[in-house]
User: Fold this.
Amino acid sequence: MNDGKRKKVRIKWYDAYSIDSWKPLDVILEATEEPMLCNTVGYILQDTSEAITICHSFNEENQVCGVIQIPKCSIQGKIEKLK
Assistant:
């Protein structure tokens, strides 16, 4: 439940891709042909000129869970405010 202090948002953003094992080049090229567009919903914890930090859960003891920081350069379109 939102306590009225945290803004709930949906963010569309491009994720980075990394692989750290030996793979055939054709497998890598196919996997990286298009960037992965992600949709993330959460509550804003911090919003700076460089990045936005959100969490998916919080409790009455001011603890948060599921924190992700998304660089602003990865965000596609506007950040959608949710109810």
User: Anything to note?
Assistant: The first strand starts at residue 8 and ends at 15. The beta strands are 8-15, 36-47, 51-55, 57-58, 64-65, 68-71, 80-82. The two ends are 10 Å apart (CA to CA). Residues 8-82 form one domain.
